[in-house]
Amino acid sequence: MHKHRKFPSGLSGTTYHFTLRRAGKTITPLVSRERFRDRKDADCRADRYFLAALWQQFGNEPFERGNLDATRLSFLFGREVIAAKDSFDPQSYEALLKINLKIAQNSFPEVFQ
Q1: Is 97:33 a contact under the CB 8 Å cutoff?
Q2: d(CA 74, CA 35)
Q3: What are the φ and ψ backbone dihedral angles of 63, each rounded to 5 degrees?
Q4: How far is CA 25 from the centre of its chain?
Q5: How far apart are CA 91 and CA 30, in angstroms?
């Protein structure tokens, strides 16, 4: 499992994690999770901060899932974060992802200002 150095480990003041310390025995698959309108403010801040960290670290370049948290990725997956290749394995730490810039700018404009 690739560890993304200098990537924030989580959102300060919350229990939201952005990275894993070590690979698990089972790999949580990436799925597209729905973001409901009545989500807590901390959930929305975590999504915004996580996307900002992805953008700062990787920009338009494809990146490996590695030690990025599957739950946090799943709230963006299928919309702001998409598979970088057609042969995508949602249960692989080596899966390549990329930011869907057009949708990400529309969903979180403050991240790109």
Answers
A1: no
A2: 10
A3: -140, 155
A4: 21
A5: 7
What pLDDT shows up at residue 39? 84
Residue of 64, 70, 67, 57 lying closest to 96 (CA atoms): 64
pLDDT at position 49 is: 94
Q: Return the C-alpha torsion angle 99, 100, 103, 104, nearest 10.
A: 10
- C-alpha span between 68 and 4 (Å, rounded): 8
Q: Which residues pair with 99 in a beta bridge?
A: 81
Instruction: Write out the two tokens for 14.
Output: 């919350």
Per-residue pLDDT reduced to its tens digit, 42-77: 888 999 999 999 999 999 999 999 889 999 999 999
Residue by residue, DSSP assigns 34-74 as: ---TT--HHHHHHHHHHHHHHHHHHTTS-EE-TTB-HHHHH
- Give the global pTM: 0.88
Dist. CA 37–CA 44, nearest whole Å = 10
